[in-house]
Amino acid sequence: MKDSFRDVLGVSRMITRRLFNGFLVAGLAPPITMPARSQTGAGVEEAIAPLDQLYSIQIQRGNEVLLAQAPRGPGLDRVANIKSCSKSIVALILGTCIARNEIPSVDARLVDVAPDLVPQDATDGVSEITMEHLVSLTAGLEATSGGNYGGWIASANWVSDVLTRPIVAEPGSRMIYSTGSTHVLGAALTQASGETLLDLARDRLGRPMGFEIPPWSRDPQGFYLGGNEMALTPRAMLAIALMMRDGGRYDGDQIVPTDWIEASVVPRARSPYSGMDYEYGWFITETGYILARGFGGQVIAAHPDADLAVAITSDPTRPANSEGYFGDLVSLLDGPVLDLARQG
Question: Which PANTHER family match (predicted)?
Fold first, then answer.
């Protein structure tokens, strides 16, 4: 069992604390292209030209937007399905619930936080699953993603379906990518706080940071889907990236506790697909990005050392594998985007 986030603060101080004078997200607008300092963004523009899945990209260093373009798709001010970037948002909400003592710690067991969620026929071992196991995708239960996803969402009770699946790995031992784990976490946050996941996202992230979050899919019991289908504007995605870059602060306000952000970049598992380290809802790249990743190529990325925040949206109907389009996006972040950050 790993230590709670309060015990790992000395392990990683990767997040710096900067203030950002942000902007409120605008209302709906037609698709747009907004170059900023295009003369210095030539390398990025050249790199994205052949990426026909890419809808939008924004790059900010410090308080300066270096590039903001939406060559395809609905633009920067209309909501996009952020797919599994939702998992990273749910992870942030968990941090706020712990800070408010709605959940005692990341080590709290699901059966103690939300006993009503655990069915009588739950798989042996479910009683030992903690909030940390769920948020780090190390619960050990059979995955509900990939080929199992359709059957899972067709079930009568999504939470019970997850918790009655076989345990295929010891909890905490390895990452099993499963939207069901994050969905159970989101339902537990609802039970512990008394607020829906939508209200939690709006009250603790959206309103304090000045952006809207529309309702999204719910399960048959009324729990909002944790880990998929949330929608944000690309500008809101950039605001989240800035908040991650700046240690949980946005426009001078502490949105998510700094200690939770710091704990969120301590490696706890490794993706069997990309090889990236995975922490509390966020990937960490070898070059220092804190990364949320969604199907199709949705990306929220922060690079504290380079003072960078990046948001990318892509066609949500087309896959983005680590060896394919997502790999192209990682190469874009590691190459032209970091090069752009070093200019000036």
Answer: BETA-LACTAMASE-RELATED, BETA-LACTAMASE-RELATED DOMAIN-CONTAINING PROTEIN
